[in-house]
Specification:
CATH architecture: 3-Layer(aba) Sandwich
Strand order of the largest sheet: 3-2-1-4-5-7-6
Helix content: 25-40%
Largest sheet: 7 strands, mixed
Number of domains: 1
Mean pLDDT: 91
Order of helices and strands: HEHEEEHEHEEHHH
Strand content: 15-25%
Structural class: alpha/beta
GO molecular function, one term: methyltransferase activity
CATH class: Alpha Beta
CATH topology: Rossmann fold
Protein name: Ribosomal RNA methyltransferase FtsJ domain-containing protein
Distance between the termini: 15 Å
Organism: Talaromyces stipitatus (strain ATCC 10500 / CBS 375.48 / QM 6759 / NRRL 1006) (Penicillium stipitatum)
InterPro entries: RNA_MeTrfase_FtsJ_dom, SAM-dependent_MTases_sf
Length: 258
């Protein structure tokens, strides 16, 4: 990925020192490459504890990396929610904020996937993939240095939710897609590489608020509530295709070929 795109090289010149955030780090290959490309950078990384089904961390310990073992989908306060209903199945498991409001990062990696061995409450089974994606995107964009870069693992370029996400990022960032010709050849997975992100733009702020709302519904609402919050009207679909259809084809052609 880096040989083809150079995406791991931090280009932000408007701050003192570089910083990296890895939302779902283990085993640590992506963060290892990011640090090798930016040896002076400091990094904050989250990883699901192995006792909860997480991967083993293979990245050697180093003073420039702060590693926290936790489930990022439970970062309720960082998702804008501080009051949890006592009757909720996970009432005692939600986590306090892990970020200073002014904390920002130049490069953020969002490549977490739902793990088969991760034990979780029944209500989470249907919406877990969405909750994980929404948490990563929200926290990342909310703490990204303007002009920074995000690397995001996605699936199925042509899926409606993916199209909407690409359309959203295309409004405030320069995006390209990458898919490895061997390791991802038979899977639907690919990476969105978003650079020069205008994280302080109104479009970015609107996206953050929408993702927070969808996460809240996926976490505390009913299945019916979640479907209503996540599905688009056909009129919305038509607008997206009219505005973004040709760009989508241009972005996706190489991914579909692979």
């Amino acid at each position: 990925m880096h040989r083809v795109t150079g995406v791991f090289h931090i280009k932000n010149l408007y701050c003192d020192g570089y910083s990296i955030l890895d939302m779902c780090m283990a085993p640590g290959g992506f963060l290892a490459i990011a640090l090798s490309c930016n040896p002076e950078a400091q990094a904050l990384a989250f990883s699901l504890p192995r006792i909860d089904g997480g991967h083993r961390v293979l990245l050697p310990k180093r003073p420039s990396v702060t590693l926290k073992f936790l489930d990022v989908t439970m970062l309720a306060e960082d998702m804008g929610l501080s009051c949890i209903p006592n009757e909720h199945p996970d009432a005692g498991n939600f986590l306090p904020s892990q970020f200073d409001p002014r904390q920002s990062f130049d490069l953020i990696i969002c490549d977490g996937q739902v793990l088969r061995n991760h034990g979780r409450a029944d209500y989470r089974v249907r919406t877990e993939a969405s909750r994980l994606c929404l948490t990563q995107l929200t926290i990342a964009l909310n703490h990204l240095t303007p002009g920074g870069t995000m690397i995001v693992l996605l699936h199925k370029v042509e899926a409606l939710a993916t199209v909407q996400l690409l359309h959203t990022f295309d409004k405030f960032a320069s995006i390209q897609l990458f898919k490895h010709t061997r390791f991802h050849a038979k899977r639907s997975s690919f990476y969105m590489l978003a650079t020069n992100i205008r994280a302080d733009s109104e479009d970015a702020k609107t996206a953050i608020e929408r993702w927070k709302f969808q996460w809240k519904i996926a976490t505390f609402g009913t299945d019916k509530d979640y479907c209503g919050a996540s599905q688009l009207d056909m009129s919305d679909v038509e607008v997206i295709l009219k505005e973004f259809g040709p760009r989508l084809i241009s972005l996706g052609r190489r991914i579909w070929e692979i």
